[in-house]
Amino acid sequence: MTVRVSSNAARLVTQVLAGEVWPPLGDRHGFRVDPDGDAFLLPGMGGVTLGVHCGDPATGYAADHLEPGLSVRHRDTAANFALQYLSCVGNTVLVTSGPAAGAEGFVIGQHAYVLCDLPEQALSAVTTGDQVTVFAVGQGLVLDDHPGIRVKNVSPRLLNALAGGTGAGGRLDVHVAARVPAEAIGAGSGMASEYANTDLMGAYEVGGDDLSLGLHGLRIGDIVALDGQDHRFGRGYREGWVTIGVISTGSGRLFGHGPGPSTLLSGPAEAFNLIDDRDANLAVLATAPTGASA
Q1: Which of 17, 78, 239, 274 has the most Cβ atoms closer than 10 angstroms to its Cβ?
Q2: Mean of the per-residue pLDDT values of the chain
């Protein structure tokens, strides 16, 4: 594998983390209200979501806070925080119980759960309660030639596919499928950038494109540039900064809860050379994870 960006990847360790596919949850107040005041009751978070994978649209579904693939957590609170904080996008995921035991996929981001994409045939054989192993490696990654850029939640394998090397003026080349304006950043601001993700403001499933800041075309797995975002030590607005994220969740019906990017890289805007590329998606960048090396 050709290394396109120098890092400390060879000095990282891999931990084997355990979780299980968590069921969808609800309460006796089943209905919620959309931006137009209409009540809705729709599937969304938790469990196994079939038919939605990296490369598929992130909007347009009759769903609320859509979590594609497997929604994985640990029933012990402290172990679940470790699973959230240490799992990195691109890490290999292995199903270890149930009819789909032995099936492999990869982490696509964090939300209320660690989200994992698997091939559809394997996904359809998984059920809630099935055990899942994550080969967690990536936290602690440092870019040798780009000290101003903080790496977050990125497996070494994905980093090499994501970062195109050092370009003109010493800037890091990064291909992005879309650019997200600062005013679109919503829920998730102020949280630790290793935990969950950031919802993009807007009303994506009602009201038309004028309420989504032109972001209706986002896909699950898209690599995106978040303008004005500093995610080094939390998530917040900082003029002149850029954060690179990956769309890990689909949109919801609640006002202000659009597709959600998980944080990957963050630094001053002048540290990046952003290259618009519609193919900058995990469906292309993370299609062949291989155990601990992912």
Answers
A1: 17
A2: 92
